[in-house]
Amino acid sequence: MATAYSGDVTGLSAALRRYHPLLRPLAYPLLKASKRLHRDFAVAREHLSPLIAERRSEPAKTENKPLDILQWLLDGAKAPDTDPEQIMLKCLFLLLASVHTTTITTVQALFDICAIPGQVGSLREELQESLAIEKGWTMRTVNRLRKMDSLLRESQRMNPMGLVGFHRRIREDITLSDGTFLPSGFQLSVAADVLIRDSMRYPHPEVFDPMRFFDPERTKPEEGNQVAFTSLQDSLAFGYGRQACPGRWFASTQVKLCLAHLIKNFDIRFPDGQSTRPPNVSRDERMMPDPEQQICLRKRAPSVSNE
Q1: How far, in Å, CA of 89 to CA of 75, rounded?
Q2: Can you give the pLDDT at residue 301?
Q3: Secondary structure (DSSP) of 157-204
């Protein structure tokens, strides 16, 4: 349901864009995508409503509370967001914000790894070294994967999920320091694609360089979040300022663990005869990897230690 909901929301958004804004309320109930979305709501309601009622009727002690997003939403909810329907919608919103974004980021990185097969050995060596130093899988292990982080940051730079970012709606009139006036209700976005391809910021910005952001001097695991590819220094993919994505470090860990598992246990390549990555698919201002592209995985011999 999690993946279906994300796909149905984006599908409905694309379908509604074909209509003039004044006609969208009329078109909405007639679209197949809206019917699929309401089925998703019904499934979520069926599963979450009894669980919400159960947790509210028998509150657990602090030390026994479930460590999940539903419990966090229940604990932090204030009227009118205490309504079970609102809790359910917030859970779905978080699914939308997390499922497809991490999937797209991981797939783009896999395409880039396949396009530069010589890079896999370096990533695998870094991973094995980190596992040996930290004696297995820990957050410090993940934070040591600086070459993987550099590749992910470069992959995100070359393949942003959107050509624009930093979406904001102005709530009251603002005059910027250069005199630019932004009226209330105005919608603002930043040309993210232009920033990440600026030759003043990145030498040879059109070239994919997996080690562009690798700094061998920064080796302390505790600095992981400061240099992670989800940091706000080089990209608007995770927003900016106070409203930047609060789960970006979790997303960084999730993507790295997924890639680390694949790199450690599989040989990864494009199908025979293919050596270059496919072009991205663009829809309006959004960009995504080619959903038709295939990659080949072959199981590697198991490692002697740190499985």
Answers
A1: 16
A2: 82
A3: HHS-SBS-EEEEE-SS-EE-TTS-EE-TT-EEEE-HHHHHT-TTTSSS
Q: What's the whole-model pTM score?
A: 0.82
Rounded CA-CA distance 74/93 in Å is 15
Instruction: Dump the DSSP string for 97-151.
Output: HHHHHHHHHHHHHHHHHHHSTTHHHHHHHHHHHHHHHHTSS-HHHHHT-HHHHHH
Question: What pLDDT score does 233 carry?
Answer: 62
Query: For residue 263, what pLDDT band results from cuts at 50, 70 and 90?
Result: very high
Q: Which residues of 242-275 are buried (b: 16+ CB within 10 A; e: fewer)?
A: eeebebbbebbbbbbebbbebbbbeebbbeeeee
Collect all residues with Cβ–Cβ distance below 8 Å to 8 and sequence separation of at least 6.
33, 36, 37, 40
Q: In the structure encoding, which two tokens stand for residue 118, read together?
A: 């010589």
Specify whether the CB–CB gap between 73 and 91 falls below 8 A: yes
77 has pLDDT over 70: yes
pLDDT for 232 equals 58
Q: Count Cβ atoms within 10 A of the Cβ of residue 166 and give its class: 0-12 exposed, 13-18 middle, 19 or more buried.
A: middle
pLDDT at position 228: 64
Between CA 58 and CA 67 the distance in angstroms is 16
pLDDT of residue 120: 92
Q: What tokens does 110 get?
A: 């896999």
Assign residue 2 a region (left: φ > 0; alpha: ψ between -120 and 50; beta: otherwise): alpha
